[in-house]
Amino acid sequence: MTSSPPGVSAALWNLPALPPPPGKHSNFDNPENRNDEIIIINAVFLTLMTAAVLMRFIIRRRGENRVGWDGLMCIVAVMGSVAHSVLEISNLKVGYGRHMWDIRGVTLTRESLLRMNQISTTYIIAVGFAKLSVLILYLRSFEVIRLTRILIWTAIVFNIAFSLAFLGVVIAQAVECMGLEALSNKFWTNTSKVTTAQAGVNVFLDFYILFIPLQQVYNLNIDRTRKLGVAAVFGVGSL
After folding, report:
1. pLDDT class of 105 with cuts at 50, 70, 90
2. Is 25 a member of any domain?
3. DSSP output for 60-89
4. What is the CB neighbour count within 10 angstroms for residue 78?
5. Which range of residues forms the domain containing residue 68?
6. 29, 117, 132, 163: which is deepest, by most CB within 10 A?
7. Across 54-63, 102-111, 132-141, which has the greatest mean pLDDT?
8. In this structure, is residue 23 part of a structural domain?
């Protein structure tokens, strides 16, 4: 294990950013990381996203020749997604992609913590606006169906409230979780719980948004095979 630098006690130098779970031990010198996976995933999905968005606007231009509110939401989501990917990859050198218990607490400077905090911020913005883009598109497509409009507006309100709530948590982390004091701060020690809750709500919203058009597909006056085909189209789009 690397010896502590001058002026830093061994106990402080070997204090992890978060305590390891039972059965795990901190590995500061040769930690496990997900750097390659993060780079590959971002490269693949940024490429797919770019292709899908370009197709969307090309088709829209041939039809209505206007962007619309759903298009504007989509553009914001794209910018947020690109910023998120750039921040993820650039922050690999300061510990992103590693377990928190494999990062020395003393190395988490204010600058590095703020940079990691920006990853969460751009993620919330990208995901929130992507969902809004789809929901506003639904409003344009199902505006004459009262039940569907109610379902859509419910999702819009919930999505905005959920995004603002987690942005509030991120802001609180940016304010409270700076320096070594963060290692005992509840906003820092409960980071994994916040991430799990955020993921759970996002998955719920994804399925809810998928359900909105599917409940109309069920009522279509077509045979079951065609209904399954239409449902599959929405299912692929939800990916």
Report:
1. confident
2. no
3. HHHHT---HHHHHHHHHHHHHHHHHHHHHH
4. 19
5. 30-238
6. 132
7. 132-141
8. no
